[in-house]
Inverse folding.
């Protein structure tokens, strides 16, 4: 599946590559494939909703980077989150990803801040081969680990966890 918001090549959307991202708050922009998103829950505090985690794919399908918006901004950004779309994200914070929360092999994560703008790209979008990362018959090179078990006295068979969007 190739995602392209425009069948006819147009003037390209100006953006930074994932490789050129620099830490800190700035006016950087990325244009990327928006793979999926899910609710982030705090398992230590009765499954408290803490925000939304998202996965972005760069235009060369070389890198997957994750993004996060905290609970206070989740409702604001939710209408902009559409899986399998091409998006342009402006004005965000780039931070080093803690090993404790690392879900991709990229060293950074993108944090949505109050100034962040997310727009679906309709014209001039880079063509992104999402199928190269969505083929479930093989292991993704961007997979960092696999959850095998969770130790907690509060977990039981009747526990319900929301499914990814």
């Amino acid at each position: 599946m190739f995602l392209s918001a425009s069948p006819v090549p147009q003037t390209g959307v100006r953006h930074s590559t994932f490789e050129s991202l620099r830490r800190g708050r700035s006016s950087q922009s990325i244009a990327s494939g928006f793979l999926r998103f899910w609710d982030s829950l705090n398992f230590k505090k009765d499954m408290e909703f803490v925000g939304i985690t998202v996965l972005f794919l760069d235009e060369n399908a070389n890198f997957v980077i994750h993004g996060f918006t905290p609970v206070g901004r989740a409702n604001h950004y939710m209408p902009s989150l559409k899986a399998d779309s091409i998006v342009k994200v402006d004005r965000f914070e780039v931070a080093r990803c803690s090993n404790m929360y690392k879900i991709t092999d990229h060293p950074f994560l993108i944090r949505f801040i109050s100034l962040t703008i997310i727009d679906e790209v309709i014209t001039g979008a880079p063509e992104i081969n999402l199928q190269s990362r969505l083929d479930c018959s093989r292991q993704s090179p961007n997979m960092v680990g696999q959850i095998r078990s969770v130790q907690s006295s509060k977990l039981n068979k009747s526990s319900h966890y929301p499914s990814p969007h």
User: Anything to note?
Assistant: The longest strand covers residues 29-42. Residues 1-11, 133-146, 153-161 have pLDDT under 50 and may be disordered. The chain is about 5% helix and 35% strand. The domain at 2-134 is CATH 2.40.50.140 (OB fold (Dihydrolipoamide Acetyltransferase, E2P)).
